[in-house]
Amino acid sequence: MKIYFDHAATSPINPEVVELMYQILKDDFGNPSSSHSFGRKAKAYIETSRKKIAELLNVTPAEIIFTSGGTEADNQILRGSVHDLGVKTIISSPIEHHAVLHTIEELKENNGVNVEYLNLTPIGHIDMLHLDQLLQNSSNVLVSLMHANNEIGNMIDLKEVGELCKKYNALFHSDTVQTMGNYSLNFNEQTGVNIDFAVGAAHKFNGPKGVGFMYVKKKHKFKPLISGGSQERELRAGTENVYGIAGMSLALEIAYSGLTEKQNHLKEIKSYFIDRVKSELSEIKFNGDSNGQSSFTVLNLAIPPRLATETLLFQFDLNGIAVSGGSACSSGSNKGSHVIRAINMNEGYAPIRFSFGKTTKKEEVDIAIDFLKSLFN
Questions:
Q1: pLDDT tier at 330, thresholds 50, 70, 90
Q2: Average pLDDT rounded to a whole number, residues 301-314
Q3: How does pLDDT run across 156-206, given as a tens digit for each residue?
Q4: 93-126, pLDDT tens digit by residue?
Q5: Contacts of residue 82, Cβ cutoff 8 Å, sequence gap at least 6
Q6: Topology of domain 15-257, CATH
Q7: What is the structure's pLDDT at 291?
Q8: pLDDT of 335
């Protein structure tokens, strides 16, 4: 039996999405930039998808720009904010995804951008007082903070951060890759949150890999990161990934249609996992705010030093349990998790990330707990 506890890395694709993508690949192969009927049909898939995603996020279709995924979207937003919007200071945190951290460090080195990293609380939340202080003393600022951390699950309050940015006339970018399709996100300033830029990646909400989007508030104008044709309102050149975009739109629509049921299921799974660990595996600790302001899709366990061997993840895999030591994007790195180092929790313990999806079952949690117990024997 194979058990998948790595939904934060990628999620299994919905069968309905596969069916739609196959049909487009097989029958609707036109180039969306072509003016004939084949091209017009392909173009219709793109614009219908754009409209649907915009509707789900309560924004206008013109504010949704399709990309190859979350990393490209983060890059374009950060680089565009500096090159085209006059940002001189970026305020972020040391536990952001490397798509953000590596980009802002490059902007610091090559463009002289001032980068400020927020202090963290003992359990890994950003220090809001520190953010307030930095905003008071800075101008031409972009705040870049992910909605939910992909390794420990800690979440920021989008509304609170957005209002603080508005107070000090700062731009606000949030990498919402881990929450898109798991939470109801409303980027309309009047009815939702004040946010300038956000990011989604289809494969995190049961869609295809290699396609994502960025939300860019309509008043902001970027130059393209990729030059060439005039696709995506001249913001991203290149023939669009028609079947991927259509698949992503359908996946997000499916996610929103069953959102409450999915959330209740995930909350139950995570709570059950935590309760069993606390009652039966007292040597194991938790990284981050596991049971507080935290995503119900991620649980990061700290395994005691005596069991923190280099083969720990391999042992899980040999027993048919797919887990992670941190971000999938850092696999192969021997530096360990930058998130765990930054929060400095449970020193010497080995972080193991369990992440859940709509297909996760309690019986699978029981098997994982039994395996964890066996490690202590």
A1: very low
A2: 90
A3: 999 999 999 999 999 999 999 999 999 999 999 999 999 999 999 999 999
A4: 999 999 999 999 999 999 999 999 999 999 999 9
A5: 90, 107, 111, 113, 142
A6: Aspartate Aminotransferase; domain 2 (3.40.640)
A7: 83
A8: 66
- CATH number corresponding to 3-11+258-375: 3.90.1150.10
Give the whole-angstrom CA distance, residue 297 versus residue 205. Answer: 11
* CB 6 within 8 Å of CB 324: yes
Quickly tell me which residue has 């870049």 as its tokens: 144
Q: What's the CA gap between 305 and 102, in Å, rounded?
A: 30
Region(s) of the chain under CATH 3.40.640.10: 15-257
Active site positions, annotated: 329
pLDDT mean across residues, the chain: 94
Q: Where in the chain is the domain with CATH 3.90.1150.10?
A: 3-11+258-375
Binned at pLDDT 50, 70 and 90, residue 308 comes out as confident
Among 52-61, 138-147, 286-295, 328-337, which is the least confidently predicted range?
A: 328-337
Residue-wise pLDDT tens digits, 124-166? 999 999 999 999 998 999 999 999 999 999 999 999 999 999 9
- Note the pTM of the prediction, 2 decimals: 0.95
CA distance 306 to 284: 11
CB 113 within 8 A of CB 89: yes
Token pair of 219 as six digits = 């008043």
Q: How far apart are CA 15 and CA 190, in angstroms?
A: 36
